[in-house]
Write a structure and sequence with these properties.
Blueprint: H1 2-17, E1 23-30, E2 32-40, E3 46-54, E4 58-72, E5 76-88, E6 93-106, E7 111-117, E8 120-125, E9 129-131, E10 136-142
């Protein structure tokens, strides 16, 4: 368990401590609510780290490395990527993998909107199976 928490902390720490690149901070809501942080790495690709409440009851931590698949129009982008997830609640604890796919729009001023899906597959713990299969709307301030 200590190794799992250490790995999750390292992934989130990497997202926060990376070199000065464009970042975004905001909320992501749907069937729960997350505090969401994005950090651009390697061109248009980005790391997204979220901490929140799944179904407003269980704690959920997830980090994904998203590849910008296509940028089109003026400010639109389509992205997808793999990641890791950690879930905890009253009687559950779970570690798993995640995948994220989404569409984002960045305005000419520092605001970003996104619509995405991030299903998570529990591999270790009491919650084996898929969770988080709900669309989420993200609103972030870019800096």
């Amino acid at each position: 368990m200590k190794k799992i928490v250490l790995i999750a902390a390292m992934v989130l720490g990497f997202a926060v401590a990376a070199s000065a690149q464009p970042r975004a901070l905001g909320i992501r809501g749907g069937y729960g609510v997350d505090l969401s942080y994005q950090h651009t790495v390697g061109g248009a690709n980005f790391i997204e780290a979220d901490l929140g409440l799944e179904s407003f009851a269980n704690l959920n931590v997830a980090a994904t490395y998203n590849f910008m698949i296509s940028e089109f129009g003026d400010g639109f982008g389509f992205y997808a990527g793999p990641g890791v997830a950690l879930g905890a609640g009253k009687d559950i604890f779970c570690v798993g993998i995640a995948g994220q796919v989404g569409l984002e729009y960045t305005f000419n001023f520092p605001l970003q909107l996104s619509l995405d899906l991030r299903p998570q597959l529990g591999l270790v713990g009491q919650h084996f199976g898929v969770w988080g299969w709900y669309p989420h709307l993200g609103i972030r301030y870019r800096f």
